[in-house]
Amino acid sequence: MQPTEQDLHVEIAKAYEPQAIEAKWVRRWEELGVFTAQVESAKQPFVLACPPPNVTGSLHLGHAVNGTIQDILARTKRMQGYEVLWQPGTDHAGIATQYVVEKKLFREQGKTRHDLGRDAFLEKVWAWKQESGDRIFEQFKRLGASLDYTRWRFTMDEGYSRAVRRAFVQLYKKGYIYRGNRMINWCPSCLTSLSDLEVTTREQDDALYHIRYPMADGEGALVVATVRPETMLGDVAVAVHPEDDRYREYLNRQVQLPLTDRKIPVVADSYVEREFGTGCLKITPAHDANDFAIGQRHGLPVLNTLTATAILNETTGQYAGLTREVARKKVVADLESAGFLVKTEPYTHAVGRCSRCDTVLEPYLSDQWFVKMHELATPAIQAVESGRIKFHPSRWGDVYLDWMKNIQDWNISRQLWWGHQIPVWTCAAGHVTVEQQDPAACATCGDNHLTQDPDVLDTWFSSALWTYATLGWPDATPELTRFHPTQVLSTARDIIYLWVARMIFTSLEFLDEIPFSDVIIHATILDPEGRRMSKSKGTGVDPLLIMDKYGTDATRFWLAGAGTSSQDVRFREEKIETYRNFANKLWNASRFILTKAATKADSSRSLPAEVSTVSSPIDRWILSRLHGLIRDVSAHIDQYAFADAISALYDFTWNEFCDWYLELAKPRLESDDTAVRRVLAEVMDTLLRLLHPFMPFITEEISQQLVERQWAVSSQTLQHRPWPQFDPAAIDLEAEGEMALLIGTVRALRNMRAELRVEPGKVAPEVRIRVTRDAHPAFVRLSDLIARLGRAERITLLEDGQIVETARSATAMVGENQVILPFDGFGDVLEREVKRLQKEVGALEQEQTRIRQQLSNESFVSKAPAAVVDKIRARGSEVAVQLETLERQLTAWSNA
RNA sequence: GGGCGUAUAGCUCAGUUGGUUAGAGCGCCACGUUGACAUCGUGGAGGUCACUGGUUCGAGUCCAGUUAUGCCCACCA
After folding, report:
1. Which residue is nearest to nucleotide B36 (CA to C1')?
2. Most CB contacts within 10 A, which of A274, A437, A651, A767?
3. What is the pLDDT of residue A714?
């Protein structure tokens, strides 16, 4: 049954109201299972692994940017006929989660994890994970993210844990994992070691203390400079440069270490910079990585003066029990009163801090597990150098390579409880057993009293397996076969080393294939002042609030453009407002079409319009522009240049479709004109499909309304519709040229009316246009439209060369055509017209001078490409005609 | 100390392989209720493209240097 006109006259909200519509489509998509990837499908796969957010996390702008970027790809590829898997999941985020739960425990119960014990504490963490674990995916759903939620994985779920075990054991058995007693970064607050990547360095103002160390034999003294005077209690030597003449005589003698009864040697080491400070370096092997190395070279002892919590230990005598901060003050005071403090000068230097809790780290000597990186890095370097993996923008590939080529061994053990416990067992005899399954007995001696290493693995060790562990590895699952390697990975640049690099080398090691072929590094969103957003400073922006306020589509439209910008972008609400307005524009355009066009002439419903059957130049123009848009948007998406796609979509929709085509369609809709209805339906339907990956909600809603009125092909969702195909035959430069004449003429008339201050409501009885021979047929076709949009009752076309009485009228040039607007009924506007003409003539004269200079420059004419010279010549003759006409007009005025 | 970015309209940003009238949004000024949209429409003003030098017939675009600014890496206490 065909809907009647009354059925069609449904109320459509005057402004786009996103909330209810978004909620409806989130539900609907889920019910229909639109995002579920089919392993069995015959389609070519397109796979994105979503960077797993922390279980405890909630959606921030970074997630929103990245989610939008990936969703655009996922939705586009679905429409393009791919079997899309966008893999979701969360990361257990060892240190971050443990830190949050410990804080909560202390706040609520005043207890530490040690009060509870390992098992009870882990129960707490699991409970917390249960509580907040899927909140972020509810938020992703609101964003419209078309993740396959049925395949959600967690880095500590059962299968994933097996993958982690398998990875560790394989690396261990191949000799890539070793235990070493080395200087690592220690957080005295989190009480764990950290990898170099988990250290943030920040400059701070301190003092550089110059301390006199008297020679043990009483003859002279050396002065050392340090920012950490309290560490002198652990000094075991003073080093000078071997070729430093100032100190030659001190070598191989001893100094009496102040505040202690110890005598320590003076050694020579070329590490010492002669120019820095006094050229004498105190050596504290237990508390400085360089000093440790120097100590090794000279066979010096290691004297640890700190506890794990950075409190001075019993070796420091009277200072034992003090924190490092208090000890520093006391040591300085004692040195000063004993006369050892030579001077103190202000000093700015970089200090390493825990990236989690911001505590100043201690270099700390301890037993840790490491991954030997050099050999593993080699194929990972090759994969990027050969172009098998491409970074976008490409400069991040160089950043990756720099790091990979200077790779250091990776400290993977953490003294935490939350995470994958290291699968290494030791028996009473000290034999080590490393197995995937928990062993019952020692592999060497059969002893069945085994102790598992209490440490857990670095969180990044497990997330490094993300692209394939989520698909079932180490089992050869159908998913793994079908969906790996993945295609695109999109992420923030601050985890290129932590995560991207490690996924690459583990995938090459375990599967002998790359994990993905393209890496998109998206831009960072900064606050309005250009600073990094930070939760603690309160400069963070909650994307959910923005979505509530402006609609998710508007937010996504901005995010997609911002995220693929080549530089970082500042967040500003006004920018989202622009796209909120855009969504509203689109909404109203469709409202207009649905209420005005779709209510008449049922015959128009045999849609869509075939390009070849369209005859009106205006219709051919919009279809030509539409196909240009299809071509450009498709290309931009292929190149991940979403910002370009967005501006093309925005400009077409607003400036070409709404401002011109819809306006031109209005008079035609008064009649039963079927062509205009077909074209409107075709453009609208195509536009909605092009916009859909960027603005899924509003496009889905409008599209369904079109379907209800049988104005678009029926389908459950736009995801089931094909991506628009570019048709080169639709490109019609002639129609575009004709439209340029129309737009130019209408603008010229509007400009004259505005500048002459003609009342907007006043219709000119006549507008005369003196047209060139070439343009004549076009103007004949366009006259009615020009009259309507240019507010004239009648258009009279004059032949080129025809002498015209131009008095009492305003003149503007459109190319070489003269648009003449008689003053009839406009009042006294002569003076304004003269001013207008003078301004125009002035500008044209300037341009003409420039062009003449150009063309009289022989080397330009002979060396520049002919096309460029021709273009300037053509413009030159156009300018000449325009000038001549306008000047004649001016003369006529001055004679009048 | 090394590396990578960025400097274009009052603000936030585009400007493809160098081609001659440098664009957009916001803001600003003037006008506007022809029923899709005031979250709108029409017209307008506004830029010696950070600076200096070079290459070229021609430079916002390429090269060198300078200044400012941001980020990353790094073991000078």
Report:
1. A592
2. A767
3. 81
Residue A147 phi, psi dihedral angles, 5° rounding: -70, 150
Which nucleotide's C1' is closest to A859 (Cα)? B57
What's the pLDDT at A606? Answer: 54
| pLDDT per residue as tens digits for the range A231-266 | 999 999 999 998 888 888 998 899 999 988 999 999
Confidence at residue A40, expressed as pLDDT on a 0 to 100 scale = 93
Q: What is the largest CA-CA distance in chain A?
A: 119
Beta strands in A791-877 (DSSP E): 795-798, 809-814, 817-822
Q: What is the pLDDT of residue A600?
A: 46
Residue A328, C-beta contacts closer than 8 angstroms, at least 6 positions apart = A228, A229, A230
- Quote the pLDDT of residue A710: 76
Distances (CA, A) of A562 to A303, A644, A647: 53, 11, 12
Round and report the angstrom distance from CA (A523) to C1' (B6). Answer: 13
A720-CA/B25-C1' distance, Å: 33
Separation of A531 CA and B69 C1' (Å)? 12
Nucleotides in chain B near protein beta carbons (<7 Å): 3-6, 12-15, 19-21, 24-26, 30-34, 36-44, 56-58, 70-77
- B5 C1' closest Cα residue: A567
Q: What is the pTM of this model?
A: 0.92
Three-state DSSP class for residue A833: helix
CA of A752 to C1' of B60 (A): 33
Backbone angles phi, psi at A515, to 5 degrees: -80, -20
Residue A7, pLDDT score = 42
Q: Closest residue by Cα to the C1' atom of nucleotide B24?
A: A647
CA-nearest of A525, A454, A518 to A118 is A454
- What's the CA gap between A244 and A731, in Å, rounded? 79
Q: Which residues on adjacent β-strands are paired with residue A205?
A: A348
Q: Output the pLDDT for position A601.
A: 44
Owner of token pair 């040195």: A335
* Amino acid A645 CA to nucleotide B46 C1' distance, rounded Å: 28
- List, for chain A, all residue ranges whose pLDDT scores fall below the cut of 70: 1-11, 599-612, 803-807, 896
Question: What is the spatial distance, in angstroms and rounded to an integer, between the CA atom of A531 and the C1' atom of B70?
Answer: 9
Distance CA A642 to C1' B27 in A: 26
Which nucleotide is closest, CA of A585 to its C1'?
A: B37
DSSP letter for each residue of A93-110: -HHHHHHHHHHHHHHHHS
Q: Determine the pLDDT at residue A896.
A: 64
A195 three-class SS? coil
CA distance A412 to A410: 6
A719, A795, A733, A732: which is closest to A763 by C-alpha? A795
- What is the rounded average pLDDT for all residues in chain A? 90
A242 preceded by cis ω (within 30°)?
A: no
Report the pLDDT value the prediction gives residue A530, as an integer from 0 to 100. Answer: 85
Q: What is the ipTM of this complex?
A: 0.95
d(CA A16, CA A551): 9
Q: A105: Cβ–Cβ under 8 A, 6 or more apart, which residues?
A: A111, A112, A113, A116, A121, A124
Amino acid at A313: N
CB A354 within 8 A of CB A361: yes
Nucleotide nearest to A273 (CA to C1'): B76
